[in-house]
Amino acid sequence: MTKDARHVVVVGTGFAALTAVRKLRASNSSLHITVIGRKPEFVYLPSLIWIPSGLRSASDLTVPLDNFFKRQRVEFLAGEVTGLADQGRTVLTDKGPVANDGLIIGSGGRFIKKLPGIEHAITPCEGIAAVEKIRDRLRAMTGGTIALGFSGNPNEPSSMRGGPMFEFLFGIDTQLRREGRRDNFKLVFFNPMPSPGKRLGEKAVQQLLASMKQRGIATHLGHKLTGIAADKVMTEGGDVPADLIIFQPGMTGNAWFDATDLPRSPGGLLKADRHCRVEGQRAVYVAGDAGSFPGPDWMPKQAHMADLQAKAAAENLLAELEGRPVTATFKVELMCIVDSLDKGMLVVRTPARNSAWPEMGLMHTAKRLFEWWYLRQLR
Ligand SMILES: Cc1cc2nc3c(=O)[nH]c(=O)nc-3n(C[C@H](O)[C@H](O)[C@H](O)COP(=O)(O)OP(=O)(O)OC[C@H]3O[C@@H](n4cnc5c(N)ncnc54)[C@H](O)[C@@H]3O)c2cc1C
């Protein structure tokens, strides 16, 4: 590190943050980079879907980042970001303030826990501990009803995590069949939307609903959720009795954003322009689930988008610091394999096309290969 290098701070150790680090380092070898995160580790969230069946364990999906930080010559501060001062030039943390010349925020999203009784449900996308709870409950149950559903952020419909919920649903169905006990269980998929998963495209929705029918999964669709109790999901269209409730609410911005003057979208995310710059800010960028970006209403909250946005954010931040024009933008594309433990349905959506292929064993293999390839780069 040279003595007079500019200092860039990156918040988070997820997809957006680590891709930003790689891009910053590849473009500038003397930059002083500090990452602020809770722990020096990366969790590969897309494979959480394989924890209930035992196909993956917590340690398979958690990559210690010591090697990565060493290779990228990154200083790591283990801490919780709590706010900003000096128009973003100081990041406030529980370990003290950190000054910077430029900032990239990749601190992800937060789930809206407002539905009465939500504590009775497991929110799987919260992380490893939540999914391990599902694994343990499934192991302990001899039969009963499993109700699984998701909803969005009413103020920002794109701020939801629907795809993985179909994967948990189909994965649990496949797992119970493999274990020879599917007949002892009733699976019910609930959703306030009549056509859940609409952002994947019409064809994908039809295929997902057809797959539920074929697997004998009941549906309770199009009714506003009013609450959750220990033994039921309550909706305006009646109750869904259940022994295990798995529910994924919509997402909003991190709590620490409230302690900043950064502009927010209607759904509470950081409002960014097409260059990933937080609107009206100097040298403050955002990438991934933390941001709200201009684009089509189906723009996904996905790791792939987080990576694309992080590259643009890093390139633009360097340009801004060096007095060059800020020009990098990101492609909007939805690429997703809806996995069911032994097969997968590939869905692709770009501004020009939208396709959904029927479930194939090859797609499950492709998802596993992608995981291997992605994690290899961070080890
Ligand atoms: C079960 C599941 C399956 C998925 N499947 C897919 C898939 O198949 N394909 C796909 O592309 N995407 C998938 N996704 C979505 C993808 O994982 C997210 O879109 C992606 O993780 C977003 O990356 P991010 O870096 O913005 O946020 P995150 O990965 O959530 O990272 C945020 C980081 O910020 C840190 N952080 C948060 N707050 C603070 C703070 N105050 N101080 C310090 N650090 C903080 C967190 O600890 C974390 O390290 C899936 C997600 C889940 C949960």
List keywords for this structure.
single chain; 379 residues; alpha/beta; 5-stranded parallel sheet; 4-stranded parallel sheet; 8 helices; 27% helix; binds flavin-adenine dinucleotide
Walkthrough of the structure:
This protein has a 5-stranded parallel β-sheet. It has a 4-stranded parallel β-sheet with strand order 13-12-11-17, covered by helices on one side. The protein has a 3-stranded antiparallel β-sheet with strand order 6-7-8, with no helix packed on it. α1 runs parallel beside α7. α5 links the parallel β11 and β12. The protein is built from 8 helices and 24 strands. It is α/β, with parallel strands linked by helices. The longest helix is centred in the last third of the chain and has 19 residues. The model has no long low-confidence stretch (mean pLDDT 96). Flavin-adenine dinucleotide (FAD) binds next to α1, β2 and α7.
Quick summary:
This protein has helices at 15-27, 58-61, 66-71, 128-140, 163-178, 202-215, 303-321, 361-376; strands spanning 7-11, 32-37, 41-43, 62-64, 74-78, 81-85, 90-93, 96-99, 102-105, 110-111, 144-150, 185-191, 218-221, 225-229, 232-235, 238-241, 244-248, 251-252, 270-271, 284-286, 291-292, 334-339, 344-349, 354-356. It has 379 residues and is an alpha/beta fold.
